[in-house]
Known about the structure:
The protein has about 290 residues and is α+β, with helices and mostly antiparallel strands. It has helices spanning about 15-20, 20-25, 35-60, 65-70, 80-90, 95-100, 275-280; strands at about 105, 110-115, 120-125, 130-135, 145, 155-160, 165-170, 175-180, 185-190, 195-200, 205-210, 215-220, 225-230, 235-240, 245-250, 255-265.
Amino acid sequence: MTIKRGEGRRLVPLDALGDHEGTDLAPMDTLSADQIYERRWALTVLEEVLARLSDEYRAVGKAALFDRLKKLLTDEPDRPSQAEIADEFGMTENAVKQAFHRVVVNPNGTRAYVANAFSSDVSVIDTSTNTVVATVALENSSYGVAITPDGGHACFTNPTGNSVSVIDTSSNTVVAIVAVGNVPYGIAISPDGSRAYVTNNQDDSVSVIDTSTNTVVATVTVGSAPYGVAITPDGTRVYVANTLSNNVSVIDTSTNTVVATVAVENGRWAISSALCNSALLLAQHLPLR
Length: 289
């Protein structure tokens, strides 16, 4: 006689199984469709940025340095310290810090602008000779840097001065100082050059600057301790990495309102706030193709 599969076994109602195995049956993702879309877009931005940075470092023969610097962007317990990387590559620890941010290249690739946090000035580098051709003094130490799409102006955040310094790149002079929020760090400029977005780390806000008048036209409340910032290629969305709340605020640029908040830690795709901060800050001059 043939025995049917499962015959003789005690049947367990699905409801009872749910009581005992609730954790296994719980939904893996409770986000809305819009939140899932925004999260995936943020992850795509981060992945694209890291891929492009990898290509740039490899093109100049510094693939090993990039691989080590990338380790710093994770929360892994065995990640190297900045001092260890500096010693490994014969650099100063400050130079390693500079490798993460505080530098931007103009659109035609002829000049690089470096924010020197400890000397309160900006170094202008001729990329054809790799020499400093000008040094622009600032009133306060600088941190984040962005350049307008036409290359005419470079903007630097001043955390200790709660301001943004605007440099005319044709004369290498400061032409405006814009008061923003408390301890500004990241800055990004819209693709059309009309707006600059500045993260105010201690105000939990973003200042929106009209670049034609160098005035703040809006202040947007975001997550806790905002740091990095990036803008989509079409200029419709601004992504802000919030260090302490471990999420990304998505700003609609037409209304200057937060339309989504994206968690950046999710299972195997967990992204540390450091990675989000650094990648988004570096993304400001690396638009998606």
